[in-house]
Amino acid sequence: MELTKGKISTFQFFTMLFLSRTLTTVTYLSSYTENIRLSDMLIQPIFRIGIGIVIMLPLYLLYRSSTSENLLDMTIRKSKILARIISLVYVIFFFYFTVVTIARLDLFAGTIVFPETDMTYILIFAIILCCYGAFLGFETLGRSSVLSAVFVIPALIFIMLTLTKKVDFLNLTPIFYNGVDSVLKVSVDSVGQTVEYAIIALALPRVKGNIKKGFFIWLVSQTFLMAVMFFFACTVMGNFASTQLFPFHTLASLAEFAMFGRLDAIFTSVWIMCAFIKAGLLIYLQSDILTTYFGKLKRTTYIIAIGFLTIIGNILISGQIKRFTFVDNSMIKIVLTFITVVVTPLIVLVFRRKEKKKCEKQL
Amino acid sequence: MRKAIIGVLVILLSVFIFNENEIYRKDIRNRLVIQGIGIDMNDNGSYSVTIQAIDTNAQSAASSDDASQPPLKTFKTEGNTIYTALKSVTELEGKVPLYSQNRVIILGKSITEENMDDVIDFFVRDVENSSSVCIAAAEKTAGEILEAKNGDEYISARNIETAINSNEFDGRIFRLQLYELINRYNSSTKDFALPMLSVVEKDKEKSVEIIGTAVFNNTRYREKISKGETVFLNMLYNTINNSALSYDYEDGKKVSLNIVGAETKRKIVMKDGMPSFKITIKLKADIAEITGGVSAKMEVKELDKINSTGEEYIKTESTKLINKMYNGYNSDALGLARLIYINEKNFFKENEKNLDSVLQKSNYEVEVNLEIRRIGHEFVV
Amino acid sequence: MSENWFDRKIDEITIKDNNSTEKRFVDTDLQKNMIYVKQQFGDAFDVKYRKYNASGKKVYFVMVDGMCDSLLATEQVILPIIEADFSDESGDKLIYSAADRVSASIDKAITNDIDEAIREAIYGSILMLTEDSHFVVMFGVQGFPKRAVLEPSTEMQERGSREAFVESFKDNVTMIRRRVRSPVFKTQIVEVGNTTKTRACVCYMSDRVDKKMLESVVERLKSSTLDTVLGSGYLQPFLDTKYPSIFSGVGFTERPDVLTAKISEGKVCIIVDGTPNALIVPYLFVEHFYSLDDYLKRPYYATFIRVLKIVSFLFSVFLPGLYVAICTFHQEIIPETMIFGITGQESRTPLPVMFEALLIHLIYEIVREGGLRMPKSVGHAISIVGALVIGESAVTAGILSAPMLIVVGLTAVSSFVVSTLYEPVAILRFTFIIVGGISGLYGIMLCFSAVLINASAINPYGVPFTSPLSPTKMGAFRDLVFRVGWKTMGKRRMQVNKLEK
């Protein structure tokens, strides 16, 4: 029972990406920024925007040349083998991020919510539900992301508002205390964790509307969210933030409203909704690539296979902090992002330019 | 295919449901709801932990109308570490401790004087512990505080927490929550202050009172300042919201002010290579009481005198406290080193290791701006 | 292999349908016709056959006694015909003469299909057959007993009309006609149910309905493979989205004013004969929170009531599951003033919180279902027993805790605020209790995300179930949670075919 492929609006698409990026922001691990002072994390988003725009340039040029095709569609006309290789790269990239997303969720749940429980069954349950989301298709994911955003955004705003009375500017740290290098490094790490650029590379032809406007609003809004969250983490918790595995979760636990304290339950809800959308979208994209460029099997079969492999991958990582640290490695992410967002579009761009020149010569 | 998927889900669900150990263990009926934790160190180096918890057996037997003061019980356990000592309570009660409802952590003298480094990690590392739990220092032992009884009933940790949290209305109480403590702990100076608790006996009735504020230098307890001095500590630290303040303004006349709003700005400038701090305290207050008779009207001159005397008084006392802190106790509980860190990072980098002497040699200037808004049932002429 | 085994089982138990679709024409031999008719009806006591002599010609009248008005049949049909002069006419001429000149009945038809004539007789027509004729006249003299128009039993409104649909679809259509005095209101009859031949009337407004949607509805009704249709609910799955979901893209109402409002938005409504509940397609999720009173009252109050409904819905779905999750996994969320009460009460009960919640909700559903089915005379006894059993006694005996009772009480009351969603809410409630008890808030949110995405997948007739929230249609927001005044809202019509697909 496969749902038909259709286009979604820019609003739905970038809401999906916003939630996906929000998940990365809220699951920020303090280990990523051990060499950087907290206030520098307020500046780092600005560097991120710059780096993000620069690395998206090849994709932008590709998109300008053809708005109805993604780079795999462009490649397959030139060479089926090359298209399959590139699509495999993307599948591996998305699979890696799916495993990391679920692994982070497992680390969080296993540390905070179920510290003494074997997470296996819960992981299987979560992955099955994410596969279900993928099965329902791109349009459904788009629609549900808008509905999820109706919960997520007010929840985050509510948590921030309740924390305003605990802000202490004395907790700020001097900007660039350890130099600009460390801030740049963290910005590059942060860009490496942004799988959304690769999603944009593949999913743009399925989006209707003003994409440039949508992209910039998304870029600015998620940067703003990141900056605001780091601001509160820094000014409310100060050095305490660096002692917590998931500082934003601890930040939410400090939030109080009337007689209700510990609003981390709201935070957990936000987290899980975003994780569901992100994992569902990544599994869907993998199955879509495999169905389109490899064919042979039904999309459902690919989804089940990907789900099964994700379960295996996450069971191996679950409860093993060393393995998690090995897998959740910044360098792997940076390299993979660079390949999928910069290198492959550049290769396709070069091919297209050559093709264009050939056509012009023939004419 | 669909039947296979449904079958797998049903099996998974059954495994979950019949995995009753998890459901039973975490259920609220099987949890020991801890209200207060007190830590002391024994002579042999082991930790003695006093736990105050809700007595659910007595609670359930008692009338459900009486929910204001739940029945409590205490446990005393020992262990090589805080965690092993706390875990031992399971043997005594047969229930898993629930730390998330803990209201206060009390550190005995034996801990605050020597061994804070060894006890803090558990409360930060454990995920159940609330980051906003209040921390207090005991004048003698923490066990004494939590085991104190007024008649037949224990003095509840909840009441102690309420007393500490009343710093919102009473500037004589200093409050530090766990996350704030760790924030200070991990800063360059490792200096902070904690409310100090003691068991006070009056007319054969015991109560737990906050007797002042314990000042720490480099995580070690140095000295206690009085509740009166704590008002100025709160002013200088910008944590005062509402408080009472009284002083002499004329021979035989005392005035009591109700401070309704306060804002403290702290600035730093470098003078002759050394930091110079300027602290501006802005207060809004109402006159609550003037001793020496009742009058229907007050002259403007008198009001100005009250104002200026108050400013002078606050300035003097604040300056005294600053000197006491830096020159007497060698403690940066006021957090002024942070200003150097934020505003003069290069100077901070050079002098990070000898901040104590820098702060002793620095200049401190306190300016007070007291605005008396209302004077109650009295005219001003 | 297992599927084949399953199919084989179905073959064994299902009797194949042997309805022939061949037309059987009226024979010129009256005897043969009458034999055939009597064969079809068998020994049915309520089918009356009368032979009369009309100007020397044999004329047979056939009618189903309970379905026809005997006085009307006698005075309007039989008497004029037997008194008329047919000396110069016979056979087909006699038939046409009787139909056109003699009987003043406006509801009449002539057919050469004897099966059609038999069906019309069952619907309340009196048949007239004669010798040497290829035709049968059917005079409509319906007079079957029917219920008077009463107040709605489920959709109560403070300021709306007090009329509700009845079982006769003709009366129901009349109620709508009285509200839409315009020829744009159209109806189309579709017969459903191979045996019951139930009439379903498809209603719509021709100037605003989506033609494709209308065709799809009619097609789906015609292709419904049902033997008997005893209620509109039988047809619901055929009209609903093909995708399995806990929510339905088909709504229902028993109010003619609500139905009128729906068709004026471009929706299609199906009135099924024999049921006072009409079906509405497509039905969006947000419409469950609307009522006619919202549009009859001031906007600020209507907004308040809608917000209340949304909150009630959330309570009815999530409250028990959240309570179980918090008591089992997230005790830190419980405010300090409540921890004492909850801990003390829960420690007295023998069951874990999850099983306690399941038990009490099960008891509540039993009492509710019992109260629904019980005769009114003993209804009070049920409510007293329910209150005593579940309330006082269970808490005193230590079987259930007071906080759990408060939760179930609030949940029960909240679930009736949005009664059209009761079915999915009841199931979701149990699901969230189990999930909350097993995996806490984590599981509840995962499950909620799955439900959300499941609802987002429903796309009946190309209109997403979650519109106008998602896909977002800004114009529709003036009547979503907040309702603007009629002066603003009346400027543009809210039309289904304008919702983004």
What does this structure look like?
By secondary structure, chain A is an all-alpha fold. In chain A, a hairpin with a 2-residue loop joins strand 3 and strand 4. In chain A, the strands form 2 sheets. Chain A has a two-stranded parallel ribbon with strand order 1-2. Chain A has a single domain, classed as Amino acid/polyamine transporter I (Up-down Bundle). Chain A has 15 helices and 4 strands. The longest helix of chain A has 34 residues. By secondary structure, chain B is an alpha/beta fold. Chain B folds into 2 domains: 225 residues, no CATH class; 154 residues, 2-Layer Sandwich (GMP Synthetase, Chain A, domain 3). In chain B, 37% of the residues lie in helices and 35% in strands. Chain B has 15 helices and 17 strands. In chain B, the strands form 4 sheets. In chain B, strands 1, 2, 3, 4, 5, 6, 9, 10 and 11 form a 9-stranded mixed β-sheet that branches. In chain B, strands 12-13-14-16 form a 4-stranded mixed β-sheet, sandwiched between helices. The longest helix of chain B is centred in the C-terminal third of the chain and has 30 residues. In chain B, 40% of the residues are buried. By secondary structure, chain C is an alpha+beta fold. Chain C has 3 domains: 111 residues, no CATH class; 115 residues, no CATH class; 168 residues, no CATH class. Helices cover 49% and strands 12% of the residues of chain C. Chain C has 17 helices and 10 strands. In chain C, a hairpin with a 5-residue loop joins strand 4 and strand 5. In chain C, helix 6 packs across helix 9, helix 13 runs antiparallel to helix 14 and helix 13 packs across helix 16. Chain C is elongated, with a radius of gyration of 29 Å. Chain C starts with a helix and ends in a 12-residue tail after the last helix. Chains in contact: A-B, A-C, B-C.
Q: What's the count of strands of chain A?
A: 4
**Regions with little confidence, pLDDT below 50 for 5+ residues of chain A:** none
Shape of chain A, please?
A: globular
Average the pLDDT over all residues of chain A and give the rounded result: 87
Strand segment count of chain C: 10
